[in-house]
Amino acid sequence: MLCCMPGVAFVPALLVSWSSAAFIISYVIAVLAGHVEPLVPYISDTGTKPPESGIFGFMINISALLAVITMYIRYLLIEKQNESSHFVRPSCNMFSLCIGLMGCIGMGIVATFQELSVPSVHDIGALVAFGSGVVYITLQSIISYKSCPQWNTYFVCHVRMAISIISCIAFIPMIVFASQISMTKIDWTPGEKDYTYHFMSAVCEWTVAFGFIFFFLTFIRDFQ
C-alpha cells in the first residue's frame, strides 16, 4: 500500500493506521484481560495496567512522533503553496504548527505518565493533547478554505470543517463531564456513582480521538 502512494502520502497514511491500531490493540487486550469493561472505557483506561500499558505507551509515543512529522510536512506544503497564491499569512501557518506540536507533547505526556500512577500530570497532558488538537484541526480547516479552489476542493474543505465542528462540540462536554467525576478508577460498572459522567465523557473522548484520525486521513491526497 505504501509503495503505491506518490510523494509523502505514506506519512499521514502511516499515522492514521498506526494510531488506530494503538487504540484498538490496547482496548482489546485490556478487555480480554478483564482490566476494563467493554462498554466505552476511557482511552487511557485501556493503557493503564500491564501488559497493555507497555504497548499503549510505546505506540502512542510513536503516534506522537508521526504526528510531528505530518504537521511539519503540512506546514512546509502550505508555505510552498503560499509563495505563489498568498492565501494565508505565514504567521498563521506557523501558529498552527506550534499548536499542533503542543498537542504532540501532550500525547507524549499521556503515554509516559499513566492514569493511575501520576493522575494530575496525565490529566494535564490529555487536556493539552485534546485541546491543542481541536484548535489545530480547526485552523487547518480554515486554511484549507482559504486555499480553495487552487489547492483544495470544496468537498474536502467541507469534510474537514465538519470533523472540526464535531470534535469541538464533543470536546466541551468531555471536559465538563470529566470534571464531575469524584474518583480516579478504570474498572467502571453501570449503576455505580459517577458512572453516567464517566460514560458520557468517554464517548466524547473517543469521538474527538477518531475525529483527529479521520482529519489526518484527508491529508493523504494533499501529500501526494
UniProtKB/TrEMBL annotation:
Taxonomic path: Eukaryota, Metazoa, Chordata, Craniata, Vertebrata
Localization in the cell: Endomembrane system
Membrane-related topology note: Multi-pass membrane protein
Transmembrane segments: 7-33, 53-73, 94-112, 124-143, 155-177, 197-220
Predominant location category: membrane
GO biological process: regulation of autophagy
Record organism: Ibidorhyncha struthersii
InterPro entries named among the record's database cross-references: CWH43_N (IPR019402), DRAM/TMEM150_Autophagy_Mod (IPR050911)
Domain CWH43-like N-terminal: 8-224
Family: Belongs to the DRAM/TMEM150 family.
Pfam families the record matches: Frag1
Annotated keywords: Membrane, Transmembrane, Transmembrane helix
GO terms for cellular component: endomembrane system; lysosome
Domain of life: Eukaryota
UniProt protein name: DRAM1 protein
